[in-house]
């Protein structure tokens, strides 16, 4: 079997008496969208934060591209190619759309930001950033101030900034949140193609999007993964149905 790009082994994280991650082992394989679903408070965000390096597990490990990254912080993991989007918006609202992408690309290359004016004249960097904007459909807004974008456009810009990091894997925390039907459809279409470039671990409450996109789904309940499988395996799993009954089931 192909080596997973990202995986955890036996992650445990407690907040006082609460076990937010309980012996969590999951993997993200090349080319896939692996959705992580579960009721509110199940521990999805806590898990993503341990993958991204925002918080440390009490025990267990996180591996990325064959390397144990458990001791690395978010910046070190991002430099290795692990891109996280959406929970924390890092967009600079007072800068233009293009400037945000260029800043993102620079972060990856560890360049100093002191020479921002000169950097904006760097033709290769500019062309590369414009190309990324074109991919997410925001090229016509390159000179728009980021603060003037709609919510949906900002979300696409966040993907563009993440793309400029040339990631090897994406961690996405509720990319559909706050998007209307059109915005969700557009984001779904975009993520669908993106998996070929880098696999995506997707935390999402929008079940339509999850069922459309996911190659595999893992279900987290009270900090534990109770099932991992394809969309139909998960929909038909009685334990998953029981866990979701209070939420109206998996529809
Ligand atoms: N820093 C913290 N200190 C104490 N408890 C926390 C902390 N972060 C999360 N928790 C608790 O851990 C549990 C899991 O929270 P988490 O945010 O990971 O769940 P979630 O599945 O992402 O929920 P949602 O779907 O509502 O975003 C919750 O009971 C939450 O209150």
UniProtKB/TrEMBL annotation:
InterPro entries: AAA+_ATPase, ABC_AA/LPS_Transport, ABC_transporter-like_ATP-bd, ABC_transporter-like_CS, BCA_ABC_TP_C, P-loop_NTPase
GO cellular component, as recorded: plasma membrane
One Pfam family hit: ABC_tran
Keywords: ATP-binding, Nucleotide-binding, Transport
ABC transporter domain boundaries: 6-247
One GO MF term attached to the UniProt entry: ATP binding
Record PANTHER family: ABC TRANSPORTER ATP-BINDING PROTEIN, CONSERVED COMPONENT OF ABC TRANSPORTER FOR NATURAL AMINO ACIDS-RELATED
Protein name, as recorded: ABC transporter ATP-binding protein
Organism listed in the record: Thalassobius vesicularis
């Amino acid at each position: 079997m192909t080596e997973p790009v990202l995986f955890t082994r036996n992650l445990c994280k407690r907040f006082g008496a609460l076990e937010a991650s309980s012996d969590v082992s999951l993997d993200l394989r090349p080319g896939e969208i692996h959705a992580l679903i579960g009721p509110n408070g199940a521990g999805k965000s806590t898990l993503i934060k341990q993958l991204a390096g925002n918080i440390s597990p009490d025990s267990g490990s996180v591996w990325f591209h064959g390397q144990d990254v458990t001791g690395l912080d978010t910046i070190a993991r991002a430099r290795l190619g692990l891109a996280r989007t959406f929970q924390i918006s890092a967009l600079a609202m007072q800068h233009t759309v293009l400037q945000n992408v260029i800043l993102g690309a620079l972060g990856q290359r560890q360049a100093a930001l002191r020479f921002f004016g000169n950097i904006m004249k760097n033709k290769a960097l500019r062309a590369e950033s414009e190309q990324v904007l074109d991919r997410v459909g925001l090229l016509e807004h390159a000179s728009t101030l980021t603060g003037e974008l709609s919510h949906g456009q900002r979300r696409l810009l966040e993907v563009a900034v993440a793309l400029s990091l040339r990631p090897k894997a994406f961690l996405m925390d509720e990319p559909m949140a706050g998007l209307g039907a059109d915005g969700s459809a557009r984001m779904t279409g975009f993520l669908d193609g993106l998996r070929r470039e880098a696999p995506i671990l997707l935390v999402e409450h929008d079940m339509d999007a999850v069922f459309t996109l996911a190659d595999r789904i893992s279900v987290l309940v009270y900090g534990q993964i109770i099932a991992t499988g394809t969309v139909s395996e998960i929909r038909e799993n009685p334990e998953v149905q029981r866990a979701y009954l209070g939420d109206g089931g998996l529809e």
